[in-house]
Structures are given as C-alpha cells and as structure tokens.
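Supplementary Text 2. Reproducibility record for the structural model of the 862-residue chain.

All settings were left at their defaults, and a single model was retained for analysis rather than an ensemble. We include the record here because the model underlies the residue-level annotations in Supplementary Table 4.
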Amino acid sequence: ISVLRYGLAVILFVLHPVYGDVNMSYSFPEEMKRGSVIGNIAKDLGLQTGALSNRRARIDTDGTDKRYCDINLNNGELVVADRIDREGLCGEKASCILKQELVLENPLELHRITLHIQDINDNSPQFKEELIKIEIQESAVRGARFVMDDAHDADVGQNSVQQYSLKKNDNFILAANGNTIELVLDKELDREKQKEINLLLTALDGGSPQRSGTVVIHVTVLDANDNAPVFSQAVYKASLPENSPLDTVVVTVSATDADEGVNGDVTYEFGHVTDEMKKVFSIDRKVGEIKVIGAVDYETTSSFEIRVKAKDGLGLSSYAKVIISITDVNDNAPVVSLKSLMNPIPEDTPPGTEVGIINVQDRDSETNRQVRCSIQQNVPFKLVPSIKNYYSVVSTGQLDRELVSDYNITITATDEGSPPLSSSKTVQLSVADINDNPPVFEEQSYSAYVSENNKPGSTLCSVSARDPDWRQNGTVVYSLLSGEVNGAPVSSYVSVNGDTGVIHAVRSFDYEQFRNFKVHVMARDNGSPPLSSNVTVSVFISDVNDNSPQILYPAPEGNSFMTELVPKAAHGGSLVSKVIAVDADSGQNAWLSYHIVKSTDPGLFTIGVHSGEIRTQRDISESDSMKQNLIVSVKDNGQPSLSATCSMYLLISDNLAEVPELKDISYDEKNSKLTSYLIIALVCVSTFFLTFIIIIMGVRFCRRRKPRLLFDGAVAIPSAYLPPNYADVDGTGTLRSAYNYDAYLTTGSRTSDFKFVSSYNDNTLPADQTLRKSPTDFADVFGDCDDSPEVGTFAKYPQALLNRNLPALNHSFVCFVLQRIPITRSVLYLFYLLHQVFCIHFLIWKMAVLYTDIFHFNVVTE
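Retained model, structure tokens:
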C-alpha cells in the first residue's frame, strides 16, 4: 500500500478459521490521513465487489465507541476513518492493537479485524524542567556521580530516547545507563576559581529524522562537605485494588542523609511523571507517603511506575523507583452490544434462520469477565454461541405478523464475579408482512332487495372484505366478475365501487322482465402476487303496481264492436258472458276484481267480483230493453289501485230477425286503401249475384236446407248480423272454469232461432290457483290480427270456415262493410236500394240461407 507521507505500510494478512470465520490482521503506521487505504477486504475474503454492498458490509467496534476505519463499498478497500494516535491510544505500551469487526448479512457473517498501529517518530524527547539546579561541595572527589532526571519521549521503541550528550566542559562528563543518567565529576572543583557552572544536556531519540530535547544544568559549588540522601530500597512495589477510596496510602518511601542539621533534612517529590499520574497519586514531601487522590481503574491502567526523588537541604538528591500494581475487582457489568439485526424479518422466514448477532463484553479480568447469556422465554428465538463472546439470534418457530407484529426480545448477560453482575438489552424486532392472506368477505353471500322502476345509480347493497395483511397487502379493491344477465353483460345492470364495495344499479329494473339475478363480486388485494376471493350477490326485484289490468275480452272500446246475444227466455243466474282480463304485475298487484259501473238496466245483470262472469239477476221480461249496454271496470289490488274499463253490448232477442241495426255504433276510418278494396269487392259480388240470379232461383225451389248454428254464451259479433265463423278462446289465467254452449240457427228465410244448451265442459280449478296465458295464446284462438293499428279486431277468420261457408260470408261481409266503413255508407246504401228495387237483396239472402252450412262457435273461458 502506498502511503504518501509515511512510505510503505506493512500489511500482515492472516487467515485462519475460527468457527468458520476469518481473522484479518493489518499493520500500518499511526497518523495516516483520513481515507488512506489500509487493505482490501473484498480481495482478502474472496468476494466480488458488489457482494459487499448487497450484504450490507460494515465495520463494528470492539469495546469502544470510536470507529477508526471503514469500508469503501464501491471497491472493497479498508480505509482510515479517523485520526489514529498511537500514543493516545496505547501510551507507552510496546504493542498497540485495535480490534474491529466486519459484519456481513444475507447470510450473517462476522469477521474479526486486528489493526496493529505502528509508531512513528512524531514526538521529541522532553525533560521535566527547563533548568536543573544542583549544588556540589568543592571537596567532592573526582568520579563522584550525581543522578539527573531523564528525558521522556512519548514514542516507543527506536523512536524513544536512545542517547544523551553533554556539552563539553572542564569538570563533568556524562554517564548514561538505560534510564539512569549520571553527571560524573571528572576534575575537582575549585570554588575560588568558579562558584557556578552551566552545563547543556541533550537527549536524542532514534527516529528518522532524529528528534532531540535539551536542558540546562546549573551547578553551584559549595565550600562545606555534605552527603546525598540514600533510599532504603532502590525499588518499591505495592498492590492497590481498583476503586480504592481517596487518601488511601499506597506505599511510603524513605531516604536518610548522614548530614546533620539542615543539611540532613530530606524532602520527597515525584520525578518525571505524566499528567495522568499526577491526577491519581500524590506524595507527602516530608514523610514520603504516596496516596490516592483520583480514581483508580484497572480497566484504564493496570500498573504505574513512578520515579521518586529525595533531596536534602544542600540540594543533593537521589532517586528510587515505585511500581504500583492495580488489582481487578468485579466492578463492571457485562455489556450486550447488538452487532447485526435483520429488521424487519419476513413472516415467512423458516425456523433456524439467523436474524441477529450480539456481542457481550466485560471489562473485568479473569473470572470476573466470564459471562453467561440468556434470552427471555415465550419468544420464537434462541441464542446460539458463535465465536468468542459472540452469539447468534436464531428463530425457532414460524412467524405470523397477523398474530404478533413486533417482538421485544430481552437478552440478559451475567458474569462469574462475586457478587455476579448482570445487564440486559432489549432488542425490538418487527415482523415484515408478506401477502399470505386473501381478502375474506364478512358474509358468505349477500342479498339485495330493490323495487322495480328504481332510479339508475341507486344503491343496492354494500359488500365488505377484510384482509389482515399490512398496507398494500391489506388494501382491498372490489370489482365485478364478468357474466351475463338475460344475455346482457352484468356491468350493464350493476356497478361496484372499487374502494367502498357499494353496489349501484346502472339501469332501472322491470319486475315483469326478470325478478332476480345474481352477480359475482371479487375482492382483490394489492399484494404481489395479488390474492382474491369471490362472493355471490343475489339481487331480488320486488314488484310495484305499475301495470293496469289488460282486458282481453271483450276488446277495448274503439277497437272492435263486441256484442252478446241473450235469449228472452234466460232465467235469473244464467251465464251471459264473461270479461277476461290479465295483469302483468304479480301477487296482490295482479289480483283482479270486476265491477259494473254503469248499465242500461242496473237490476238486470250482475258480474262476479273475482270471476268476471256476467249473469242475469232475474228472469228477462218483455219490458226489458232489447239493447243493453254494460260498462265494466276491472281493478287490481295494488296500492294505489289501477283499473281498466270496457263496454259490453247485449242484445235480448230470440232470433236474428228481431235484432235491430245498431246505428249508434260507429268506427273511425283507419285505412283508405281498405275502403277502396271493400267497394271493389262489393261491386264484384253484386255483379256475380246479378249474373247468376236465374240459377239461384232454380236452386232455391229445388233444394232447401235447414241450417244449424252453434253459439256459445259469449259470442263475438262484429256487426248487427251474426258472422258465419267463430273462434275458440282459451283461458287466460283469470277464469276459474270453462263454459261451452251450442247455438242452433233455423232455416227460415229471416227467422233465426237460438237454443242454449248447458255446459258440457266443467273444468274448475281450486280457488288458490291461477291459469296464465300469454296474449299469443289468444292469437291462436281468434286468428291473426289485422296489421292496422286497431289491435284486437278480428279482421281474419279461420280459412276452413271461410271455405265451407262462403255464401253466408258474402251476406255477412256486405253487412260488415256497411257497419265498418262509414264513409262509403251512402254509396252502398244507394246500391242496396237498387237491389231492393230488382229484388236482388231478397234473392241474395235466400241463396245465403240455402248454402249456409252449420257453424260451430266455442268460446272456452277459464
């Protein structure tokens, strides 16, 4: 490694497995600049450069809060992070070692880094005082030695003080033996010649470049003889427990002087000591007791070496060494440090996963630093010892964030001291959520009830699903699953709010179209991958009374002319006709009731409230009007009630000859083309009749045939004259039984006799049942309707009857045209008078009677 200031640094790299870990050792000089490269961690571990970043590599400290090196994750280099002063870190220790830890995650690994700090010559030798004063008797003999205070150099090894030199003079030379410096008298002194002598002492270290320090020695020559103090021991040793109280006497030094009087008084003082020692110990100048004046901490300094100086009244002095050993006591509790933690930990982490690394340190020594670690109970984690003072936190069970989202793990460390000391550390571990729970609906199924004719956008119901997962994994979004309702997409009927789950109607519902339908709602979370669940929502549409009753028979007024023929011999209670109506609603909204709101003779006819059957209340008398008009109202049972009305025309007569022309019944012209066609048809028929009049007269006298006409009690007559064809009317669901009557027509030229025979079909349903028929069922019975807007008129008749009864139809057709087309009535009437003049009308009628076949008309009502 290239170091700009200090040259090449020696790097020692040692690989040796310790429980599968690597111990890396680097040696480099102190005072390297910040950012200087110490080594390359990635290369030494055999890792790719990107692996350090992916595994969150970092440097952790060992027993200190200061980090002196760091890792460059881009290239894997170990660099200086802070100023490293060997003298400040290690003092006078020959070896200065810093221990750091390299932590790697995914998987968790711990590697010890040992940093050997090399000393550089950055300190000069220094003497305790700038001026040293000594007094020497002129009677001192040649070779006398006088001990001097040595110089101190904070550096160690070769960079410390290596030699001393004394500036050349006439009287003294220098004798140095290790840390002992002595001034040797080389020539006897003569006070009369020179009372004071100044010497220059220089201390030199062995560094490069070499550094030095100097001090001036001032020698005073005395004229009286004196003796220097003498210590009782050259070296004093003492043992002191750490944390000793203040004023504790550590050791007492003693020196004696052979002189008497003032010259024999000895005083004591420390030689060259550091500022740290001055804060811990003091010496009594008179007695020589060394006492404790500051905190004594074994973990800070385990021993002290002090030079003590004894000086008499004449200035003569001598030195002794005091070595104080500090004994350890169990005064430090273990310290639990969290070195690495996988936080948060995914809840799907399998058991046995290493989630953290802790380190336990006790600054005490020997037995006092032996530590036991334990973890609290009832947590799915345990401690597994790793390398020295390191433990792994390992999961032991399956985690579930929805049950426990956070763990407060308490780790307790206890030492083996007496008494034992312990400490605890709480590690907060969060469990990270994964998307392992699908949304769950609060109900297994939902039902919504809505009345028909609802407003689009109205609220039907609300669905709700809960997802116990966290944040986006627990955020629920609602949507409709694709499907169809009556062949249309379900989205055209309802919509769901994706955030709230509220279901709205998109359109207005009609109970008569469909009464219920089902939709499927999906609740999906925002996890990756997303999870979902479905629920069925049944929508029930309730009926409202929005449909009026529809009268099927008789046809509503204005569409066709419906007439019933009632014999004069009808007794009270006889069935005359029946009103048939249906209601598209259901339930009580479709319960129909029938009422006669107006009639020509109020006491003659009555109607069944629930059946719609029109019956005579009494026997018909001669005084009763031949034409009876009933207005019938049909009401449903809804709230509010809706109704419809129809007119029923009744003719009281025993034969057709008595039936007058109903001139008060008129119809509107709807189709001009139909009028033209009818006129042309009438002219053609008349021409045909005039051409074959002679043949008809001959047939009339040769053959006469008595016709028979069958009538039901409910006959639909489109004009004042009965048509020769009839239709079957099936039940529509509101009648309770079927009625069939036979009507017979005599063969008289203008006499028509009718006979009503009792019903031959008794189909009675229970009162609580209803037969329903669609309007198309009636089309099969009454025949196809005209294409004109007059819905309900019978414009076409069964083809079979037309083919069999064409002569009778011709006459009926003429009568029908007279009643049907008012705008041609005058022309047709003129034509009719012309027929009367030539007796054509008489011959045509007789021909119709001759060729009229038996017609059977059944009206099946239920």
